[in-house]
Amino acid sequence: MPPQWDESAVTEDDLIAALFAPIAGEGALGLRDDAALIAPTPGREIVVTLDTVVAGIHFFADDPPGAIARKALRVNLSDLAAKGALPRGFLLSLSLPKDFWAGAGAQGWLETFARTLGEDARRYGCPLLGGDTVATPGPLTLSITALGEVAAGRMVKRTGVKPGDALYVTGTIGDGALGLKARMGETPRLTGADEDFLVGRYLTPEPRNALARAMADFASGGMDVSDGLVGDLSKMLRVSGVAARVDLRAVPLSPSARALIAHGPEWFERAMTGGDDYELLASLPPGRAAAFEAAAAEANVAVTRVGEALAGAGAPTFIGLDGAPATFKVGSYGHF
Amino acid sequence: MPPQWDESAVTEDDLIAALFAPIAGEGALGLRDDAALIAPTPGREIVVTLDTVVAGIHFFADDPPGAIARKALRVNLSDLAAKGALPRGFLLSLSLPKDFWAGAGAQGWLETFARTLGEDARRYGCPLLGGDTVATPGPLTLSITALGEVAAGRMVKRTGVKPGDALYVTGTIGDGALGLKARMGETPRLTGADEDFLVGRYLTPEPRNALARAMADFASGGMDVSDGLVGDLSKMLRVSGVAARVDLRAVPLSPSARALIAHGPEWFERAMTGGDDYELLASLPPGRAAAFEAAAAEANVAVTRVGEALAGAGAPTFIGLDGAPATFKVGSYGHF
Fold it and tell me: Do B139 and B199 fall into the same domain?
């Protein structure tokens, strides 16, 4: 890489050669072609997912470039994990604001962005395969398409929940939503450690790709939690045509989330409905529960049983902190 | 679909159900899941490509919605065709401006966009598989990821040109670049028919997917022409490590392009360097030329031999209209 680019004349080819080719995988053909190539493993199917994030909508334009890179990739990795798929690679659409190059540190920003993206790609075994870099009069926008593989017929579907299935969540719920409020300075006073933890969970989700194999082996239905546990679980149950009883008292909370929730029930509601969790929901027959839990322990991913699916098409019953059925106004996200 | 949406409360799920689910393919799982599923054909590999287009950069915001839909899909289909791949499906990232819903006719715009996209998807056998719809404070932005399949080991690469290969182009070159100038009112006076033809070629490229099988069967190297024949051909030869002699007098021109080029050599230069062709470049051993031409005729795609690749790593020699070697200032696209 040149020590300092002539920023008045940086081309897409320059960016590719300096920043993206070093983090590209084998099927990327050095990022010198029109397309990438994936040789599917015999007996496996390709799972493909796409998520777009826009500065000012899905992240803050002044978030650290490494955090932006990680989150854009990880929200897609989370979708692959929920489907039981192992990553094969990803494509990146990077729309850079027209005034990007006028800002101080444009080169450093991009170097950190690409280096961190490459570190995450290695960490999750999901190399860069290709993409497109364009200029936009709008905000920084990243769209990532991630491709994975799963044994034929084993992709875990949202529609697969069966009556009687046990319902599980991974990790802890609500940290991301509470972290967003902390990031915006809209929470009661927290310790520095709690604030750092929650904001960190908002900025940098931990996708549960280590659980993908157990999902494919044991889950009947699954999805990742991105728009809030209550809303996403309701959606999964609805498209599966089942009802459920979910005990929110069983939903795992981090100590930092507990500290904030102690300030009032509105924080619990936000934790259950707010989104940005990137944890997994799984349903499975109770007879598979022990094997699933053992596989999760082996993968070092915490899983917690929070309810069971029931015959019938009614809305799920959520048991609140007071032990009575709770209803939630599931957050509206404006138009989308 | 409701006869008139409540535009103050349209959700992504509404858009999916009303507009996108009807044009989705089998692997899309009704667009109700986190991901799409592709069962690869045994013995074939997956080819994946991504192109992003931004209003005000790659198209005009007031272009007809159907034209925007078609071009966004077709520039990706063109990449698959160049690689010899048959389409399997695509994912759409649609970023709608925040004020989109405030404009008159938002619903009609989206209906036409989605319906036309669906028509093109059927026409080219490339169904919608999934995607993401987001709001943006910026301009309308579309990013499409297209997936195709090619016999294992047969993907046509940019790097595959061999010394001695014959060099071919499809269709006619320059119409798109001249059409863009006509669209901007920056050409000498043309007949209405010529202007309509050139602007049409700019707005709605005709990807050469019918030639994909012949590309995979016969081509050593290939790419599609999107950034101008001279620049793209130079790039393909450079990454292949070969030189070439290309006779631009042999490059096929449409009658409408000829009418404009009659106004001066600057129009010829623009035709050769301007981009937006979405025709294919192919290289193949001369011994395969007759079979390739026969397959192209069978596919009803015009192909024209324009030069040959030569041993050596020097820049290609382009013979201009006067029979002498010509040099071109290959267009700069700002930062990208």
Answer: no
Instruction: Using a CB–CB cutoff of 8 Å, tell me whether A250 touches chain B.
Output: no
Cα separation, B92 vs B227, in Å, equals: 23
B79 and B141 in a single domain? The answer is: yes
Chain B residue at shortest CA distance from A145: B145
CA–CA distances in Å: residue A190 to residues A54, A60, A318, A321: 29, 21, 28, 22
- Cβ–Cβ contact B39 with A under 8 A: yes
**C-alpha dist (Å) from residue B234 to A5, A112, B231, B295, B327:** 24, 32, 5, 26, 12
* Number of independent structural domains in chain A: 2
Residue B200's domain comprises 158-326
Radius of gyration of chain A (CA): 21
Domain final residue pick, A129, A151, A173? A151
Smallest CA–CA distance from B12 into chain A, residue: A336
Here the CATH number for the domain that contains residue A116 is: 3.30.1330.10
Contacts of A93 in chain B (CB under 8 A): 50, 52, 93, 143
B118 touches chain A (CB under 8 A): no
Same domain, A230 and A313: yes
Q: Which residue of B has its CA nearest to A12?
A: B336
Closest alpha carbon within chain A to B95: A52
* Half-sphere exposure (Cβ direction) of B305: Cα atoms closer than 13 Å: 15
Tell which of B151, B167, B192 closes a domain. Answer: B151
Nearest one of A175, A167, A160, A159 to A247, comparing CA atoms? A167
Per residue of chain B (336 residues), give pLDDT as tens. Answer: 344 556 667 788 888 888 898 889 888 888 888 899 999 999 999 999 999 999 999 999 999 999 999 999 999 999 999 999 999 999 999 999 999 988 788 999 999 999 999 999 999 999 999 999 999 999 999 999 999 999 999 999 999 999 999 999 999 999 999 999 999 999 999 999 999 999 999 999 999 999 999 999 999 999 999 999 999 999 999 999 999 999 999 999 999 999 999 999 999 999 999 999 999 999 999 999 999 999 999 999 999 999 999 999 889 999 999 999 999 876 544 445
Compare CB distances from A83 to B35, B143, B152 and report the shortest one's residue. B35
DSSP alpha helix (H) spans, A94-174 = 106-124
Q: Are B315 and B330 in contact (CB under 8 A)?
A: no
- In a domain, residue A335? The reply is no
Work out how many CB contacts closer than 8 A connect A with B.
220
Question: Which tokens hold the place of B114?
Answer: 């989605």
Residues B80 and B143 in one domain: yes
Q: Is residue A106 within 8 angstroms of chain B, CB to CB?
A: no
Look at residue B209 and tell me if it is in a domain.
Answer: yes
Say if A1 is an interface residue toward chain B (CB within 8 Å): no
Residues B201 and B316 in one domain: yes
pTM (predicted TM-score): 0.94
Q: Do B159 and A29 touch (CB under 8 A)?
A: yes
**Mind telling me how many Å the CA of B132 is from chain A's nearest CA?**
6
Q: Does A33 touch chain B (CB under 8 A)?
A: yes
Q: Is the ipTM of this complex over 0.95?
A: no
CB atoms within 10 A of CB A205: 24
Check if B139 contacts A (Cβ < 8 Å). yes
Nearest-neighbour CA in chain B from A97: distance (Å): 10
- Minimal C-alpha gap between B37 and chain A (Å): 5
